[in-house]
Amino acid sequence: xxxxxxxxxxxxxxxxxxxxxxxxxxxxxxxxxxxxxxxxxxxxxxxxxxxxxxxxxxxxxxxxxxxxxxxxxxxxxxxxxxxxxxxxxxxxxxxxxxxxxxxxxxxxxxxxxxxxxxxxxxxxxxxxxxxxxxxxxxxxxxxxxxxxxxxxxxxxxxxxxxxxxxxxxxxxxxxxxxxxxxxxxxxxxxxxxxxxxxxxxxxxxxxxxxxxxxxxxxxxxxxxxxxxxxxxxxxxxxxxxxxxxxxxxxxxxxxxxxxxxxxxxxxxxxxxxxxxxxxxxxxxxxxxxxxxxxxxxxxxxxxxxxxxxxxxxxxxxxxxxxxxxxxxxxxxxxxxxxxxxx
Length: 342
What we know:
By secondary structure, the protein is an alpha/beta fold. It has helices spanning 5-12, 16-23, 31-44, 50-57, 75-89, 107-120, 133-144, 169-183, 200-216, 232-245, 259-268, 284-292, 303-320, and strands at residues 62-68, 95-101, 124-127, 148-152, 164-166, 188-194, 220-227, 251-254, 276-280, 297-300, 328-329, 333-335.
């Protein structure tokens, strides 16, 4: 038979209202009493009544704030589609999403929007943001205020986030190194064009790639590593400058957005036939460049599932309050010209 709040109250010698406040983390209970009640509940094997909580939740909205650096980056269109699908499916339970989109990786812009999330006192927040100490501190403040924080697409595992939904970026980097080694046995003179040095996922793709080449015993040199800031104009300018300065570059590793700009620089210099270019994700411009043969392969990560699972798991947590919830790692999918439409 399921343990009830009445059972816990009787065992603890307190009122059912006191038990309810403890189990739902509400204020107004002496700290020692709260610890004793929680210990008794745990010992008796109490689990929350999800159906009852859902019925109660229908009377008030469950508000989730989302932050994405998605302006100018079509990859996040599918993440947002996943968010919205989950929102539709959970609409009967009062789930409402507020999605804030910003451009690029400016620290002040991210801190400003995270502060706005904090001020709105959401039930939960879902963020894709920078892995730097000021952001970690800001996220921790939100979590300490009682709002559940989850990371989507790129992690900040040193923060007080509850769980992460997204790819294994290190594995993606190692996968890229293995594919490159299969494609070319000659010395690899590599230009790395990354999104931001402050995004954990981008850095993990680089680390996995380098360590993978080392494990393969590959003959390689990283000529330079530059940021595109997920911007095609910056990607074009910095890629072209490197190619003009180093005519011996024969591989370009694109770890994030800015793909169109970087590849346009290659084409404008007439270097597309002498370079191996590899990228991430399946967005329209990348798909076109793979079909054209400019990009040799692209590695994908199920962005719609990331958005969908993040909201669904956050909802489940907010209803059940059961910790811990494990991370969700999406699949690493390799696409070339022959399967890019699948």
